[in-house]
Design goal:
7 strands; 2 domains; single chain; PH-domain like; alpha+beta; 169 residues
């Protein structure tokens, strides 16, 4: 793989954050109605409205497509989940695989997992659940198997062209 390869960017909408927006709007409405009942409920109403406002803001920030993206570059990949960006070099990560959680015989969720030399903060949970210490927060609008194939292809091309830097993970 040439070092001048264009980076690939995949963005996705994270629908789970719309739950925060809906809950926030509900709290704002409850706070407004409680606030008008009596002087005794003024503080409670203000607290509900403030909490609802924070939930709405968090939901809006995290549901933006630019807040949830994957960038595949020549030297590695990075993913952003809200305000947190994680970068992993190809030589520091192992093969990618798909992990599926089945409930009642149906696939409930699919994750793209991998092992990395520099695990992220949630790696203990990842190890117990998936057996790998790295997991992508989404599939970025693709099928999990399709994303795994793409990541493994780019990683394999990098490792074959940089054999000295790449070590087994």
């Amino acid at each position: 793989m040439n070092d001048d390869v264009q980076k690939q960017v995949f963005k996705s909408f994270q629908w789970r954050w719309t739950i925060f927006i809906a809950l926030g709007i509900t709290l704002i409405g409850m706070g407004a109605s409680v606030h008008g009942l009596s002087v005794l409920f003024n503080f409670t109403g203000i607290a509900f409205m403030a909490g609802g406002g924070m939930l709405v803001m968090a939901g809006l920030i995290y549901s933006l497509p630019s807040s949830n993206c994957l960038e595949i570059k020549t030297g590695g990949f990075s993913y952003r989940d809200g305000l947190k960006t994680v970068f992993c070099r190809w030589e520091d990560c192992g093969e990618f695989s798909t992990w599926r959680q089945n409930i009642l015989g149906m696939t409930a969720s699919e994750l793209v997992t991998f092992n990395t030399k520099a695990p992220v903060s949630s790696s203990n949970t990842n190890l117990k659940t998936t057996g790998k210490n790295g997991v992508l927060p989404g599939t970025y609008g693709m099928d999990a198997d399709e994303l795994v194939a793409k990541l493994n292809q780019v990683r394999a091309q990098y490792v074959s062209s940089h054999p000295v830097q790449a070590a087994a993970v």
